[in-house]
Amino acid sequence: MTRVRAMISIAAALLLVACDGRKEGTYQGYAEGEYVRVGPIDGGLIDAIPVKRGDRVADGALLFQLEQTSEVAAQTQAAAQLAEARSTYQNLLKGLRAPELEQIAASRASAAATLKKAELDFSRTQQLHADGNASKAALDTARAARDAAAASVRELDAKLVTGKLAARQDQIDAAEAAVQAAQAALDQANWRLARREGHAPQAGTVEDVYFRVGEFASAAQPIVSVLPPENIKVRFFVPEPELGRVHVGDKVTLTCDDCPTGLTGHIRFISTQAEFTPPVIYSEQSQSKLVYMAEAWPDAKPEAFHPGQPVRVALQAAE
Question: Is the pTM of this model over 0.70?
Answer without folding.
Answer: no
